[in-house]
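hi! just following up on the protien thing from before. the input was this:
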Amino acid sequence: MGLLRHRMRLVVLLDKAQNINQQLRARLPTICRGWIRAHQSMDEAEEVTRSQTGLQAQSDTVSQLERVTCELRENIEHERSRCLGLVDNVTRLSSERERDRSDFAFAQLENERTQRYLRDELVQARQDISRLRGEYPNFRLGLIVSTVSTSIAWRCLSARDFFTGRSPVLVIRSKATDVERRMRAHLMWQFNRVCVA
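and the predicted 3d structure came back as:
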């Protein structure tokens, strides 16, 4: 809006300058520089004064034109720098947008890989659970059988030792599991019960 206002002033000032030039050309074929001849009449002196006033008005108009032109140049430079700044902002934002798109694509690929990995882990865990469920009854049966056979073996050993007069030695390994320790303690308790009986 400011730029349009300055352009309008420039047009008005140019029109005034042209009108002043035309008036001066019509009135005086030559321009006097500020001195008046002694033999001139009063009308001629007034004519020269008017022409000098016209020249002063013309110089004022020219200085006004120069000032408005300078303002227009400053406004144009300001608008040009603002446009360049806007172009830079658009370029920066578009590059950031492209970078964000590529980051999003990489994150999405990583997410899909993680989901596939977790899905495979879940399938493997489910297979392990079903396999262990199938093995649990067999393991339990084997544990019961081994406990019973060990108990029978201890009873036989303890009966033999009781009759022969030897005392059995119980060996516990350092890496024995809790189940093995309980089983040995249970067998020892049964051995003591058999010995007392």
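Residues 42-164 form the longest helix (123 residues).
Residues 44 and 95 are 75 Å apart (CA to CA).
cheers
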